[in-house]
Amino acid sequence: MNEQALLGLADDELVLGWRDSEWTGIAPMLEEDVAFSSISQNEIGHARAVYSLLSDDPDALAFDRRLQDYRCAPLVELHLLEWAHTIARRWLYEVADEIRITALKDDSDAAVAGLAAKIDREEAYHRMHAEMWHDRLRDEPRFQAAVRELWPYTLGVLPAELRGELVSRVGLGEVDAVERGTNTEELGPLWEEMTVVRRSAPAGAQW
Amino acid sequence: MVDEAHVWEALEEIPDPEIPVLSLVELGVIRSVDVSNGRVRIEFTPTFLGCPALEFMKRAIEDKVPGADVAVITDDSWSTDKITPAGREKLRAAGFAPPAPRLVQLQSQVHKCPYCGSSETRLENIFGPTPCRSLRYCESCRQPFEQFKTI
Fold first, then answer.
1. What are the tens digits of pLDDT across the range A135-183?
2. pLDDT digits over B5-27, tens only?
3. What digits encode the pLDDT tens for the residues B66-125?
4. Secondary structure of B4-69 in the HEC alphabet?
5. Does some domain include residue A106?
6. B50/A129 CB distance under 8 A
7. Residues B65 and B24 in one domain
8. Does the pLDDT at position A44 exceed 70?
């Protein structure tokens, strides 16, 4: 996988980790508060590990880039503080991410393949969580509407060659994808928040 | 002159920061120790990549073995199967159900209560106080417990 694609993967995990952590303290059930906090922590850990493959300074990659240099898919940028959409995004993202990580386990770069295998072990639990919710909500119109609305964004998570499997797994038709490379307006406020400490203390903050 | 056995002994004294009944050696996260030409190199693998104790453990190793070169290896070499038999027993004694071996876990979904040994337990939450633990409840002795995830 090339560097830009790895950066896209790491940015997806970082930004979704931030988005899902927005449920910490306010999720509709205590169990989900715990689950979303743990999943977010894992996703941000995956981002750190992938940034570390790309640079000796993963924090700089995570927090010192300009807004327009983030390569994340628009799906993860969306500020969806509503439960049906949040669960729909978790499920859709995990389906797409599984396809991507499975392909990455066969990468010609041993460091990338090894890290992908390690990430996959952890993602197995994210998938269990997402499938549990999908099983429960799949017949609910509100959930189905959220899945349809997010479907063009989900296609944009994967490169074109991996989308066929996504289409068959999710069971919706291929439509125009919301592609990676143009950030949505919703990333700006998140970027402001995410980078505020680094920008206010360029020499490094000490605790 | 420091040799590898000395380094392993020193590392056995470092407790896991989140589950201090275990040492880092028992947790299986020390992948290798190499001493050559007076240089000590220690390879260390995180359990979960998002583990907040990662930097803490790395510093603890550097403090315990001054001058050692500590490399964090993020490949696929650690799994819960690397937890030593003594480590598994210490987990159980502390009320954490040790992770089932990967092969067993993939074939059966049996989770035993660390208090009474019953298999009549149910999943309460895939996630728990740290990424490496799930929450379960024992129907036999009516005790909630933490299950170390198999990964």
1. 999 999 999 999 999 999 999 999 999 999 999 999 999 999 999 988 8
2. 999 999 999 999 988 999 999 99
3. 999 999 999 988 999 999 999 999 999 999 999 988 877 666 778 999 999 999 999 999
4. HHHHHHHHHCCECCCCCCCEHHHHCCEEEEEEECCEEEEEECCCCCCCCCHHHHHHHHHHHCCCCE
5. yes
6. no
7. yes
8. yes
pTM: 0.93
Task: Locate the chain B residue with the closest alpha carbon to A132.
Answer: B126
Residue from the list A49, A111, A121 with its beta carbon closest to the beta carbon of B151: A121
User: In angstroms, what separates the C-alpha of A162 from chain B's closest C-alpha?
Assistant: 24
Q: Which residues of chain A lie closer than 8 angstroms to B57, CB-CB? A: none
ipTM of the complex: 0.88
For chain B, say whether A154 makes contact (Cβ under 8 Å).
Answer: no
CB proximity list for B22: less than 8 A, separation 6 or greater: B15, B16, B83, B87, B90, B91
Looking at the structure, tell me whether residues B40 and B69 fall in a common domain.
yes
Domain containing B139 equals 94-148
